[in-house]
Amino acid sequence: MKAHILAVLLLAGPAMAQDNPLQDSATWDDLRESALGLASDVPQDLGVLDLEAPVRAHEAAIVPIRLTQPHGAPAITAATLVIDENPAPVAAEYSFGPAMMPLDFEFRVRVDSYSDVRAIADTGNGNRVMAGRFVKASGGCSAPAGKDMAAVEATMGQMRWRSAPEDGQQVGTLMIRHPNFSGLQRDQVTLLNIPAHFIDRLDVRQGEELLFALQAGISISEDPVFRFAYRPNGQPIRVHVEDTDGNVWDREFAAGG
Predict the structure, then answer these.
(1) CA proximity to 107, closest of 190, 202, 182, 174
(2) Rg (CA), the chain
(3) Which of 179, 190, 229, 240 lies at a C-alpha separation of 20 to 30 Å from 97?
């Protein structure tokens, strides 16, 4: 619980120090083409997209990441998050609706060893831009789960939503209870490996209008939290969640949370 509260405070806090730019990465040179099909590197442009992340993570299993755009930047329709040195480097693939522009989007990830964390974003017409930071963290993918298995079963799939004005924009926060087991963790009672079991699809809409959608791997944190600015249209917030065990959860929340 303390870790969860800390992570939410981190997400809600001021922008994090940005003296940790991307470093040269032989891993990325390989991943760029083999995993993403990119024949050449993607330019960085802070006028289009920035990625904020801590220089050194307080907890490697809940590293806060924030994607932001300045006003007037071209709209981002999709972004792929890559954590170069994670066992499964492609951490998440996001799609964004127009109500999320300009992007201000926060979430938490696991970082398994010192690594570049980068977002490759699509701005339309085949144009891409990259943003990222080098994060000092280790062991995030194998860190023990924060709850015992009984608590996991009792709370999995529960959701909370809140929405409030903040600094002249509407900010929504979606919290989902799920262990997001990576397959690299051990049960602290039996000492056996816990099979991978994580949210792999998430769809968030206001009415029929897409806010964001997610296809994820093992790197999204336990009990994920998503915090984002959006333009409300007055319609209820509809959340659809699927996990790798075939569980499906649907919730609808009043627009104001």
Answers:
(1) 174
(2) 17
(3) 179
> 164-184 burial, b if ≥16 CB within 10 A, otherwise e?
eeeeeebbbbbbbbbbbbbbb
**56, β-bridge pairs:** 136
Q: Computed from CA positions of residues 36, 204, 172, 216, in that sequence, does the dihedral angle turn out positive or negative?
A: negative
The tokens for 81 are 């998050």
Burial class (CB in 10 A: 0-12, 13-18, 19+), 102: middle
CATH code (residue 83): 2.60.40.2470
Q: For residues 238 and 252, is the Cβ–Cβ distance under 8 A? A: yes
Single out the residue of 8, 6, 3, 4 nearest to residue 226, CA to CA. 8
Q: What is the pTM of this model?
A: 0.91
Domain count, the chain: 1
With vertex at residue 236, the alpha carbon angle to CA 75 and CA 223, rounded to the nearest 5 degrees, is 75
3-state class of 83 per DSSP?
strand
Query: For the chain, how are helix, strand and coil distributed in percent, rounded to 5?
Result: 10, 40, 45
Q: Which domain holds residue 196?
A: 2-253
